[in-house]
Amino acid sequence: MKNILVIGATSAIAQTFIERMAVGDNKLFLVARDKDKLSTIKNDLRIKKNINITTFILDVNDHNNYDSMFNTAKSYLGRIDILLMAHGTLPDQKECEEKVETAVFEFGINALSIIVLCLKAAKIFEDQKFGLLAVITSVAGDRGRQSNYIYGSAKGAVNIFLQGLRNRLTKYGVSVLTVKPGFVDTPMTAHLPKNLLFSKPEVIAKGIVKAINKNKSKEIYLPGYWRIIMFIIKSIPGKIFNKLSL
Ligand SMILES: NC(=O)c1ccc[n+]([C@@H]2O[C@H](COP(=O)([O-])OP(=O)(O)OC[C@H]3O[C@@H](n4cnc5c(N)ncnc54)[C@H](OP(=O)(O)O)[C@@H]3O)[C@@H](O)[C@H]2O)c1
After folding, report:
1. Which atom of ligand 1 lies at the shortest distance from residue 59's CA?
2. In this prediction, what percent of the chain has a pLDDT beyond 70?
């Protein structure tokens, strides 16, 4: 039996993860900002899976509500075995370049909200002396590209933050899993033309569950071939890279 907290539970990737984890005696505490979407997910799971599940409404821009969310989660779940953070936005890079407020807002959602939530979660995990914290970042955080460097820099900041957190929490028996998907066919990328590099959210969720079951405390690429793609992209010398329209 696992007690599972999911933040950003209405995300397409999180929903397929939740479907997979909604088994046996597992208990789920789902957090998202959209009340209607969240109650549809909850009701569907209750009918299909007869699982222990409750929900909490949180807009991650509302930092003042974080403590209340964690306290409610702890009183429902008791101990937290697994925490998955999945919320995020794909900003309009051009708009971020023109309006500094947009850049700050988008960086806030994709980096600062995750970092603050992780800092609060870290205290809980440290006290428990066990648990696994998984955060979905992105391959976009591996190297800045002109087409999405606000998103990329936010994901990159979280990657570095999680490296430090992993270093801090390992001695408490707590795992920190950084999940770096490549392109995924979800509402976030609905406006983009699709190609062979796009994966279905189910593939990403399957990879996350596999890594969690193995209690991995490291960075993973999903699907795994993105490790090779990003190795190649990171290896391109700056002189050449800067001439490419990526
Ligand atoms: N799709 C890709 O190609 C791709 C690739 C690499 C990494 N990722 C990452 O994977 C994660 C999941 O994304 P996805 O692809 O599953 O996209 P998605 O279905 O669009 O999910 C994004 C989620 O973030 C939530 N969210 C956005 N702003 C929020 C806020 N202020 N407060 C609370 N929740 C907020 C959305 O809530 P609402 O439902 O209320 O809008 C939605 O649940 C994200 O971190 C994303 O950056 C995605």
Report:
1. 32
2. 100
Asked if residue 32 belongs to a domain, the reply is yes
Shortest-distance atom of ligand 1 to CA 140: 6
How many domains does the chain contain in total? Answer: 1
Residue 246 lies in a domain: no
CA of 109 to the centre of ligand 1 (A): 10
Q: How far apart are the first and last CA of the chain?
A: 45
Which residue, 84, 167, 81, 75, is CA-closest to 125? Answer: 81
Per-residue pLDDT tens digits for 133-190: 999 999 999 999 999 999 999 999 999 999 999 999 999 999 999 999 999 999 999 9
> pTM of the entire structure?
0.98
| Cis previous bond, 223, omega within 30 | yes
The CATH code of the domain that includes 232 is 3.40.50.720
